[in-house]
Design brief:
By secondary structure, the protein is α/β, with parallel strands linked by helices. Helices cover about 35% and strands about 25% of the residues. Keywords: Methyltransferase, Transferase.
């Protein structure tokens, strides 16, 4: 198997890397993967993950919800309820941060297309890209949306989008620095980049340690904190304008983690930890399980 072996930190270029955690792929393979941390800047990443050409089979799980849209089980029912609520919140956030009610939007890693469809129905000109053929087929069938493969990013005209969104996508993308460069190129001068990623310094991440479901090895290659993602933005010509917590994520992630740990009463225990995480994020939003970051060009 071809592996992504990282010898220099993608953020600072440092070579002093240390093993931080050992995690298990609970979704598909049961394989063990190690997380490494840069001793210079603190950036955390999955070491020796399958290369991009081979990662596809690690998404082939019937309950990998962003690609299959499964409603099986209480946890996925919660996911769907929260998603419907958050679609409205995300649309409102986009329009507020972009200072416009309509415009051109690129949704990268659109999954099954719910957000892209929601923005299109609000009058936005939407382009969407997604790597999974299964997810693209779902978007076509349910929303009549022609979602492009991820290779189409290179075909878009520079400075052609008022808003670019990546909802829990950045952590999956192997060419990390190249992606940031592409985003800067495609965004208009006064455009807005909105990135949502798990927060590896969150309350629930610290509680669960290596079992934290949002490490999701080997599908999640990069494990951001508020500090490291701000540094990535600055490195590629962006200013961090706003940060917003995603407190609902803690409930789903905690339930999933409890299931991975083979605990009893996973739904109840996940709800309890999610509630504690919610209150923790109310006190300090940087402890939220996931965060939304709003970037603008310098």
């Amino acid at each position: 198997m071809n592996k992504l072996t990282i010898k220099t930190c993608p953020l600072c270029g440092g070579t002093h890397l240390e093993r931080a955690l050992t995690c298990v792929d609970h979704y598909v393979s049961g394989e063990v993967f190690h997380l490494c941390r840069c001793r210079n800047c603190g950036f955390l990443f999955t070491q020796d993950a399958p290369a991009e050409s081979e990662i596809g089979r690690y998404y082939e799980a019937s309950d990998y919800i962003s690609h299959t849209d499964t409603k099986k089980g209480a946890m996925n029912s919660v996911y769907h309820w929260v998603r419907n609520y958050m679609l409205k919140r995300k649309a409102a956030l986009v329009m507020r941060e972009a200072h416009r009610k309509t415009g051109s939007l690129l949704d990268i890693g659109t999954g099954t297309g719910y957000f892209a469809d929601a923005m299109q129905r609000r009058g936005w000109q939407v382009e969407a890209v997604e790597k999974s053929p299964q997810a693209r087929a779902f978007a076509k069938e349910h929303f009549n949306m022609d979602v492009k493969p991820h290779t189409a990013l290179k075909d878009f005209t520079p400075e052609s989008f008022d808003v670019i969104t990546l909802w829990h996508v950045m952590e999956h993308l192997e060419p990390l620095n190249e992606t940031w460069e592409t985003l800067h190129s495609l965004l208009t001068e006064k455009g807005v980049l909105i990135v949502a990623v798990p927060n590896s310094s969150s309350f629930d991440a610290k509680k669960y340690g290596a079992y934290w479901a949002a490490y999701d090895v080997p599908r999640h290659l990069w494990h951001f904190t508020p500090a490291t993602i701000q540094q990535f933005g600055a490195k590629h010509g962006f200013i961090l304008a706003e940060r917003h917590p995603m407190p609902f994520d803690a409930f789903y992630v905690s339930m999933l983690t409890e299931r991975h740990m083979r605990h009893s009463c996973t739904f109840l225990k996940g709800m309890i930890v999610g509630t504690l995480a919610w209150f923790s994020a109310l006190v300090k939003k940087e402890r939220s399980s996931s965060m939304i970051y709003v970037f603008r060009k310098k």
